[in-house]
Amino acid sequence: MKIAVIQGPNLNMLGIREQHIYGGITLEQIHAQLQNAADQNGIELEFFQSNFEGEIVDRVQECLGTVDGIMINPAAYSHTSIAIRDAIAAVNMPVVEVHISNIYRREEFRQKSVTAGASTGVITGFGGFGYHMGLIALMQMIGELRALNEARNAQSAE
Questions:
Q1: Rounded to whole angstroms, how far apart are CA atoms 29 and 14?
Q2: Which of 54, 56, 61, 141 has the fewest Cβ atoms within 10 Å of its own Cβ atom?
Q3: Nearest-CA neighbor of 46 among 18, 68, 13?
Q4: Burial class, 38, CB count within 10 angstroms (exposed 0-12 / middle 13-18 / buried 19+)
C-alpha cells in the first residue's frame, strides 16, 4: 500500500507560526510520527510540501496510477483552490483532507473548504494526530476497495 502525503502552503512553518492555533509540532515531526505508524503497518509514504498551488495540482495528478490514496492538507488553498479541487476529483481515488486546526472554529472565510467536496472525507481540529486518523481511514478505504476488486475479479472468473 502506497500513500502520498501532500502538504500545502505555510505548513513548512509549523512549530514557528501561530503556535496558539497549530501547536509547537513541526512538519518534520508530524512526518516522522506518521512514518513510524506507516512502517508498523507495511505502508509506503511519499511526502510532498509546496507553497505553490500549481505544484500541488501537479503532485495530485502524478498520484494517478502511482499510489493507492492521498492524504492532503491544502491549508489556505482549501478555501480558494478550484484547481486543487478539480485535480482531487480527477484522480478518482481515496483522498482524506486533514486540517490541524478546527476550521469551523476559525474565521468565517476559513470555514468553507472547496477541496473537501472532492475528497472522500475530512479530518479537522485534532492537531498532528489528525494525520494518524487520516492514515487509518485510508488504510480502511484502500483495504475495502481491494477486497471489492478481488471479489469482482473472482466473480468474473467463474
A1: 10
A2: 54
A3: 68
A4: buried
b/e burial code for range 63-100 (CB count within 10 A of at least 16 → b): beeebbbbbbbbbebbbbbebbbebbeebebbbbbbbb
Tens digit of each residue's pLDDT (9 = 90 or more) over 85-138:
999 999 999 999 999 988 877 778 777 899 999 999 999 999 999 999 999 999
101 annotated ligand binder: yes
For each of the domains in the chain, give its residue range(s) and CATH number, in order of start: 2-157 (3.40.50.9100)
Quote the CA–CA distance of 134 and 149 in Å, as a whole number.
22
**79 belongs to an annotated ligand binding site:** yes
Q: Known binder of ligand: residue 73? A: yes
Rounded to two decimals, the pTM is: 0.92
Query: Residue 124 pairs with which residues in a beta bridge?
Result: 99
Catalytic residues: 22, 99
